[in-house]
Design goal:
Blueprint: E1 2-5, E2 13-14, E3 19-22, E4 25-29, H1 30-34, E5 43-48, E6 58-65, E7 72-77, E8 83-87, E9 110-117, H2 126-141, H3 149-153
Antiparallel strand pairs: 1-2, 1-5, 3-4, 4-9, 5-8, 6-7, 6-9
InterPro entries: Hikeshi-like_N (IPR008493), OPI10 (IPR031318)
Pfam family, one: Hikeshi-like_N
GO molecular function, one term: nuclear import signal receptor activity
Length: 155
């Protein structure tokens, strides 16, 4: 179905490294993979395997969840884009300790993968779009671009 690689951190892993929640959802517990150092894993390459046929109107969406937070969409792969290197924008730790019952399981970060309708996804690579947006804001704030284009070209 799919595989993942954490650049400079892992060998390729197939779907068997994930816990299957149902027919279209999988979760990788980062605690078993890297312990509490999940926030040091900044990129993930996800790819479709050759024998997997994803319908053209579907995508494999990737989400991250840090302890005590909601899942955050990172990007997706499709038949037209069968692999992607996605940035994992783990939120900064809040610095607040979470009180938990002593008999509860330890809270860990997770990476979720799910089959979703392509039309329902906001973007295939959220982080890349945010980088482009930041660059555009920097260019817009640059003094050299506050003059008329004809002035810039004639200098």
């Amino acid at each position: 179905m799919f595989g993942v690689v954490f650049p400079n951190r892992s060998f390729p892993m197939d779907i068997s490294a994930f816990s299957q929640i149902d027919t279209s959802h999988w979760v990788l517990d980062m605690n078993t993979f890297v312990g509490e150092a999940y926030d040091q894993i900044r990129e993930m390459c996800i790819f479709l395997l050759n024998n997997f046929t994803l319908p053209p109107d579907k995508a494999l969406a990737v989400y991250i969840q840090s302890p005590g937070s909601q899942f955050l969409f990172c990007g997706a792969v499709t038949l037209a884009r069968p692999s992607a290197v996605l940035t994992l924008p783990w939120p900064e730790p809040s610095g607040q300790m979470q009180l938990m019952p002593t008999d509860s399981a330890p809270v860990s970060a997770k990476i979720g993968v799910s089959v979703e309708d392509l039309a329902s996804l906001q973007s295939l690579d959220v982080t890349a779009e945010k980088r482009i947006e930041r660059l555009a804001l920097k260019v817009d704030g640059s003094r050299s671009f506050r003059r008329k284009p004809s002035v810039i070209l004639n200098t």
